Amino acid sequence: MLVNAGERDELICILSLIYFWTTGEKLSGLGQITNITAPTGQDCKKWNLNNKEPSSLFKLSDQELTLTAMLHGVRKAPLRCKADIVVNNKHGISLKSHRKANPAIVNHTTRYGWEQACKHMHTEIFPLDEAIEKYWNLRESEMISEDVKNQDPISPFRDYKEYIVPLIEYFLFYGSGIGLSQAPAHTVLSFTDPTTPDTWRLLKPTEVVGEAWPHLIFSMRSKGMPPSFPEMRGSDSFKKASIEKWTKNGKGNIEGRCTCVVQIEMSSRNFKKLSTKWASLTYGKAFDLVSRKNYGPSVKILKKLLLTHLKSLNNKCMDDCKWIKNATCPTYSLYICRP
Hints:
Layout (H helix, E strand, L loop, with lengths): L4 H19 L12 E2 L24 H10 L13 E3 L3 E7 L6 E6 L1 H10 L5 H15 L6 E3 L11 H14 L12 E5 L9 E3 L1 H8 L3 E6 L18 H5 L3 E3 L2 E3 L3 E6 L21 E3 L10 H14 L9 E4 L6 E4 L4
Parallel strand pairs: 3-6
Antiparallel strand pairs: 1-2, 2-3, 4-11, 5-8, 6-7, 8-11, 9-10, 12-14, 13-14
Helix pairs in contact: 1-2, 5-6
C-alpha cells in the first residue's frame, strides 16, 4: 500500500516515462528513451494500457495503481537505492514531487546516520552539532517551532550552508544514514505534475542543492528513533553515545526528538524575504517585522523577539505599540508610539 501522495506521484511519473518511451517522444534532458530499468536492474515493460494516456492514472486507487505499476515491471525502489528509476542505462533518477506535500530529502535520520554522510563526504559533524544545539535553544525559548525554514532570519542552520550543502548532496544522490546507495542517483527529476513533461526539471547535484538551499525546512522529530532507545543493547549499543547528543530530556523522561528531517519547500510558492531592521528601530518610526501566512515565525514569536530587543534598549513603550495588519499585503507592521 502506498503511504502518501508523493509515492503515488513517483509511480505515476515512472509510468509516464514508460508511456513516452513507448510512443517514442523525445524528452528534454533525456532525449529518446531506449530502455527503462528498475534501480535493482530489472527491465521495465512498455505501456500496455491500450489507448489510455498517463492522466488516466490519477483516477486509480492506491491498490490499482500499485498493480498497474507491477504489470509494467515497476515497484517502489528499496530503501538502499537513491535512484527511483534508471533511463537509458545511464540516468539514475531520483523523483521529487512538488504537487502536494513538501518532498523530503532526509527522512528521520539520527545523528549516527548523519555521521555516515560526513564520513563519505570527508567532513566533520561538529558544525552540525552546533546548529542542532542552537535549534534546541531556540525551541526551548519558543522562538521557533518544530519546523524551521531556511528563509527564516533566525534559522539556526542558514549560517552553515558551506558545511551542510555537501551533506544534503549526499542524501539526495549518494546514500542514506545506513550507508552508500546500491543505486546512486545522477539527477533529480523535480515536477509539479507527474504526467506532464512541461512541468519537469532535471537537475544535477551542483544545481539542485544550491537551488534548494533557500527553500529547505529543518525539523527535529521523535519518529525514526531506534525501538530500543535509550537502552540500545546488542549490536546497536555503539550508536547510543552519538544518538544521545541530539536528544533532549523532558519531565524526567527521554524525549525522542533526535532524528533530523530536511524537506524542500514547494517550489510553486513565491516568498518575500523577512525584514528585520533592528538597527533602525527608534521612537515614532515604523518598524517592519513580518510574518507571512504559512511562512516564517508566527506573530507570537515575532512579538517575543521584539519585546526582548526593546528590553535590551530599555524601551518602556511596549504598551503603546500597535500591531496593524496590512489589508493589501500579508505582512504585519509594528508602529512604535511615543510614550
